[in-house]
Amino acid sequence: MKPAKYISYIFNPLELLRTQKVLHVNPTAPAVRTEPEQIKIFVYDYNQQSVQIEEFTEIANCFPFLHSNKFTWINVDGLRKKDVEAICNHYGVHYLIVEDILSLGQRPKMDEIEGLQFCLLNMLYFNAQHSAVETEQVSIVLGKNFVISFQEDASRDVFNPLREKLKLSSSKVRQSGIDFLYYMLIDLIVDNYFVVMEKLGEKIEMLEEDIARNANTRTLAKINMLRKEMIVLKRSIAPVRELVNGILRSESELIEERTEKYFKDVYDHIIQANDLAENYRDMMMNLNDLYLSNVNLKMNEVMKVMAIVTCLLAPATVIGGIFGMNFDRIPLLHNKWGFFISVAIMLFIPIVMLRIFRKRGWF
Fold first, then answer.
1. Hey, CA dihedral for 176, 78, 234, 289, is it positive or negative?
2. What is the rounded radius of gyration, in angstroms, for the C-alpha atoms of the chain?
3. How far apart are CA 152 and CA 125, in angstroms?
4. Cα distance between residue 113 and residue 363, in whole Å
5. Strand pairing of 116-127 and 132-142?
6. What's the CA gap between 41 and 150, in Å, rounded?
7. Residues 6 or more apart from 210 whose CB is under 8 A from it?
8. 151: helix, strand or coil
């Protein structure tokens, strides 16, 4: 590969933008989000006997479910400020929670304000095309008989297994309270962390093999790219441990005692995910050390070859210098075989040196 290609790969403007996106966090800055032209609202109003599934595009259509005698899950896909404020005002959600829902780059957190429990965490996806970890901020509000979830992207999520379970009257979520639905939403997000980390683990293994075979500047760029993804992963996973622990310690009336054991299971999963993220970070550091070791090893091999060549040419240089001196009396100077004898000596000495080097295992 030409040096120009190395430079274009290392100093890629897209990579610089990715670095700014990963490292820049300012929770005090006002949210700058492109609001969608249309939102989707999915409502699941259910109990043990029946389930009502509705899909709306107007936020006001889900207001009547506040007084439903069933459990209600309202999933809002796409965030528009006026719609978020409208539904939160109707369901009695505090203004501080509304600010957190509309904010960008928030650290995963859990709050309990005015009888409602709120948690905010990141849903992770792995973009195979760009080998990048993508995040989507998800906000979940738990009330007495309702759960409202807010998503930024309407095109993807990890809640489809929950939707299928809500259609089955025999499922655990239909037989339990609204707090179990709240647990299921958090659990599905946490379980998807392992899917993303598995993809990253495959990339790390492939990169390790690539370094062992042929470590070059492009390999270094791949290492730096994966290290950025590990930053995103660690930043998204680590605070969720405090979030789940906060739910367990809250002693909220919204969480039944029989549901606490499920949140303890989520807590175990997030600890495992956090440990795995730490292991991956250590592996990336080891890959960086492995890359540097391979580069130094290659450099040492080059220097060894150059040193051997220099040593082999040294006798010829000395002999040529001696016979090239401007003196009248030099041995074999006027001998008709003098040139051939000197050349033979120049060849004989390096051959002897090569045998000595090989015997000592220098190459």
1. positive
2. 34
3. 13
4. 73
5. antiparallel
6. 10
7. 219, 222
8. strand
Q: How far is CA 150 from the centre of its chain?
A: 23
CA distance linking residue 308 with residue 303, whole number of Å: 9
Contacts of 96 (CB under 8 A, 6+ apart): 111, 113
Ranges of residues in the chain whose predicted pLDDT is under 70: 1-33, 363
Both tokens assigned to 143: 């009330």
Longest dimension (CA), the chain: 120
Alpha-carbon distance of 159 to 4, in angstroms, equals 46
pLDDT of residue 28: 57
Pairing between β-strand 51-56 and β-strand 132-142 as defined by DSSP bridges:
unpaired
pLDDT one-digit tens code per residue, 97-155: 999 998 888 889 999 998 899 999 999 998 888 878 888 999 999 999 999 999 988 77
pLDDT value for 29: 56
Helix (H, G, I), strand (E, B) or coil at 360: coil
**pLDDT tens-digit map of 77-90:** 988 899 999 999 99
Q: What angle do CA 174, 180, 186 make, to 5 degrees?
A: 125
Strands (E), the chain: 40-46, 51-56, 71-77, 109-113, 116-127, 132-142, 146-151
Which of 270-305 are b and which e, b meaning 16 or more Cβ less than 10 Å from the residue's Cβ?
beebbebbeebeebbeebeebbeebbeeeeeeeeee
DSSP symbol at 220: H
In this structure, are residues 204 and 282 in contact, taking their beta carbons and an 8 Å threshold? no
Question: Which H or E element spans position 357?
Answer: helix 338-359
Amino acid at 287: L
Amino acid at 219: T
Residues found in the chain: 363
Sheet holding 51-56, edge to edge: 51-56, 40-46, 71-77, 146-151, 132-142, 116-127, 109-113
CA distance linking residue 39 with residue 71, whole number of Å: 23
∠ CA 77-78-81 to the nearest 5 degrees?
Answer: 130
Cα separation, 188 vs 184, in Å, equals 6
Q: How far apart are CA 157 and CA 146, in angstroms?
A: 20
Question: In which region does residue 235 sit, left (phi positive, over 0), alpha (psi from -120 to 50) or beta (all else)?
Answer: alpha
Inter-residue contact 22 to 231 (CB < 8 Å): yes
